[in-house]
Write a structure and sequence with these properties.
- The chain is 32% helix and 19% strand.
- By secondary structure, the protein is of the alpha/beta class.
- The protein has 3 domains: 207 residues, no CATH class; 114 residues, Sandwich (Immunoglobulin-like); 313 residues, TIM Barrel.
- A hairpin with a 4-residue loop joins β15 and β16.
- The two termini are 40 Å apart.
Length: 660
């Protein structure tokens, strides 16, 4: 679904997408050591709009659509945050507007059909007509520039200016171009490229097949409805959606009080953390044992903090090796040259250190073999065959030490795939390998949900279940997604929606982390804002998480709407029920329906409803949820309904009913 991002939002996603466009323009695969400007030597700005640029535009557009765009962006954003202070030049970005489709000349359609465009766009089902329309639309936005701001050579990154955003450090970066430039042309070029990326992403999400469908997806719906079934509420809260990737470091950054504030008794809000010392000042085992030792001590600190909250912990062994997207071009990987001695010693050292520090707590400590090995050469820069050998050696060694028959069962988590799907040849080969070597089957199947669309654990887990059965494998202990949600989705509306979805699948998900450097291991993955004086403030999302963890009672079965879903919970002893309602892009009238009111107790025929909004506030600090309504609610046929006038899809809502 297309974002309802406000025109006044800071230009995070635009500039991030521009960085992606820079990479994709010149290269078909990610290369973290070479940053290229967004143009080819054969293209100049004064040529835009002429027939000469059309083949290049065709190629660019097709490549943008066909390279699993959102995940590629994820890698670049994780590796280096690039911001811009020139937000005004980006305000008219197509990321914040509807995309007009005008007339496309039949000759263009014919040329695109001849080029095989339709067959090369499996992810979007975009027609040739729409393809040339979107090109024409964005080409028209470019001015004619008399100076070419692009250079076809390597260039460095230097600090430029500061764009102050409450969620990130104040250091900003911009490409240092080696020729005189007109910045209006640079930003116009950025706007053009990011618009292609944004539209391709949106089309990938909604799977349009004709222009009318694209227009329809942008229309504001009159109403959407979610239902909470109060007669189907069972057990204590489990908070399945409350894990996160990194987000804390040391013994008090952020202060443990923030983690405790987000937890309730022995059921912590933050149920899982995944960490391995990534992007700490020292590298890992691949550089030296001393570097590994320093990283492992950060793991010990993080593990102790989670143990204090009764939460589980996933050890990321690839980060302990040093493969965290900051490694250099000559960095060694396990098994290089057929020599496995170093990797075998590495695994035994981890086993020894886990035991030494008392971290071998059954089920609460888990081991991830490698992070996103299928994502280009970012985290695994070797062949898949070499990876599979590493995976097998590591699995067997860890299982021998901490297997299910031991007194200290530490589940193995894998394959931590960036894109597990039936069309991914890498993933199919991994499944075939595991089928042939069932002693290396993971205890917990895990994957990442940071691609296009809503990143829905409900649909993706069903697809994973079908794949596992297709290959004759066992589900094991179940599923886990130890990274979920794009940066654009880290807002109260989507946070509440994801929590609701994880309550449906009943396995644990961990919030993705889009920071880099020290911020990667601080701020609770962006839930908090670190102020210049070192203190912290809470975002709207932090309040969503606190509400999710703080609601008391028994979770209820809920029925989702078209773009809405909710986490419902009831406490008959207090004659109250609540719905934390999330949103994937809807504005309009939302109906929150409570069925089975009699489950709240005898005589529950007169209700009082309270509606609170948890605002996004453009990512800035939010003091508290805001009460927007209190009203009596009628009960008819054991059902009550409360309406919300949802004006900003990035916000979340809490609806609470109390029986008199």
């Amino acid at each position: 679904m297309m974002s309802n991002k406000s025109r006044s939002d800071p230009p995070f996603s635009e500039v991030e997408h521009f960085v992606l466009a820079c990479k994709l323009w010149r290269r078909s695969q990610l290369d973290r050591h070479l940053w290229q400007p967004p143009c080819a030597p054969t293209w100049r700005h004064d040529e835009v709009g002429s027939d000469r640029d059309r083949p290049l535009l065709d190629t660019l557009t097709l490549s943008l659509i066909d390279v699993r765009l959102p995940k590629a962006a994820s890698v670049l954003i994780k590796r280096r945050r690039i911001l811009s202070s020139s937000g005004a030049a980006m305000q008219a970005s197509a990321m914040t507007t509807a995309f007009p489709f005008t007339h496309c000349h039949p000759r263009r359609l014919r040329d695109l059909l001849k080029s095989g465009a339709a067959s090369r766009m499996p992810h979007t089902q975009l027609s040739p007509h729409e393809l040339c329309e979107l090109q024409d639309t964005f080409r028209a936005s470019l001015p004619t520039c008399d100076t070419d701001p692009c250079v076809a050579q390597r260039h460095q990154i230097e600090p430029l200016r500061t764009y102050k955003d409450p969620r990130e450090p104040t250091l900003a970066f911009s490409p240092l171009l080696t020729t005189p430039i007109r910045y209006d042309c640079v930003f116009a070029t950025m706007k053009y490229l990011l618009s292609l990326v944004a539209l391709a992403t949106a089309l990938n999400s909604v799977q349009v097949s004709h222009a009318a469908a694209a227009h329809a997806s942008l229309e504001k719906r009159a109403a959407d409805t979610i239902t909470v079934h109060l007669d189907q509420c069972r057990g204590p809260p489990q908070h399945y959606g409350s894990g996160m990737l990194y987000g804390a470091q040391g013994t008090n950054s952020p202060p443990q009080s923030y983690l405790e504030k987000l937890g309730i008794n022995s059921a912590p809000l933050i149920t899982d953390i995944s960490a391995g010392g990534a992007q700490s000042p020292t590298s890992g085992w691949g550089s030296s044992k001393a570097h590994y030792d320093a990283r492992f001590m950060t793991v010990v600190d993080d593990w102790k903090r989670m143990q204090a909250l009764n939460g589980s912990f996933v050890i990321k062994t690839s980060d302990l090796w040093g493969a965290d997207a900051t490694q250099g071009p000559n960095f060694p990987f396990p098994g290089d040259g057929g020599n496995w001695a170093s990797y075998d010693a590495f695994v035994q050292q981890i086993i020894s250190d886990i035991k030494k520090h008392g971290m071998d707590v059954s089920l609460m400590t888990q081991i991830e073999l490698w992070n996103e090995p299928d994502l280009g050469k970012v985290f695994w820069a070797r062949s898949q065959d070499q990876y599979l050998e590493m995976y097998a050696r590591g699995s067997r060694a860890f299982r021998k030490a901490f297997g299910p028959k031991s007194d200290h069962h530490l589940p193995l988590v894998g394959p931590s795939s960036a894109s597990p799907n039936p069309n991914n040849d890498w993933f199919k080969k991994w499944l075939s390998f595991v089928r042939a070597n069932k002693d290396v089957q993971p205890d917990i199947y895990n994957w990442h949900l940071e691609g296009g669309g809503t990143n829905d654990p409900v649909s993706s887990s069903q697809a994973m279940r079908d794949l596992i059965r297709q290959y004759g494998l066992d589900i094991g202990l179940g599923f886990q997604t130890n990274e979920y949600g794009t940066r654009e989705q880290q807002r109260p509306g989507y946070a509440a929606w994801h929590h609701a979805r994880y309550e449906k699948v009943k396995f644990h998900g961990m919030r993705g982390n889009w920071a880099g450097g020290p911020a990667l291991r601080d701020n609770l993955a962006g839930l908090l804002i670190k102020n210049p004086d070192g203190s912290y403030a809470e975002t709207g999302e932090a309040h969503v998480w606190a509400i999710y963890g703080g609601l008391k009672g028994s979770p209820c079965v809920t029925q989702e709407g078209h773009a809405l879903d909710s986490y419902g919970i009831a406490s008959p002893a207090k004659r109250t029920a609540s719905a934390l309602v999330g949103n994937t892009g809807f504005t309009g009238t939302a109906n929150v329906v409570f069925k089975g009111i009699s489950a709240l107790g005898k005589g529950a025929s007169h209700l009082q409803a309270e509606v609170q909004v948890i605002p996004y506030n453009r990512g800035a600090a939010v003091a508290a949820p805001v009460r927007v309504a209190t009203q009596p609610v009628n009960v008819e046929q054991d059902t009550a309904s409360v309406q919300i006038n949802w004006t900003n899809a990035d916000d979340a809502y809490l609806v609470t009913i109390t029986a008199a």
